[in-house]
Amino acid sequence: xxxxxxxxxxxxxxxxxxxxxxxxxxxxxxxxxxxxxxxxxxxxxxxxxxxxxxxxxxxxxxxxxxxxxxxxxxxxxxxxxxxxxxxxxxxxxxxxxxxxxxxxxxxxxxxxxxxxxxxxxxxxxxxxxxxxxxxxxxxxxxxxxxxxxxxxxxxxxxxxxxxxxxxx
Length: 168
Known about the structure:
single chain, 168 residues, alpha+beta, 36% strand, globular
């Protein structure tokens, strides 16, 4: 599947993409701006913590340079239409609009799969990610002060959500 407007190849993530996905994830961790996680999990652990749908990658020259995936927010059936979004772009590929392309595609695919709410928890300092989400229709619904520590430092996060306008 290719993003027609930008001719950017976006496709479903495969297990064989894991090394590239994990490397991009690690680079995000190294910024101290992307996640509370400090170690990349095994494929099996990552796979079990994410929905099987809406796992997407962007490829350039047969190399994965960005990815997106959804995690369930709860195991309760009433929350089956609510998921947490993660988007990561390789350091050398930032600033090219890949986050927006992935965001658009994951919104479309998630709505087609019956997801009515996407949410993200973003470090307060990560203004680029906050802007990306707001540009895609997310709104800030909460602020968590000193919610958890990363590398021994208390961090604050914004909670953003996007509600679908489709009828479910």
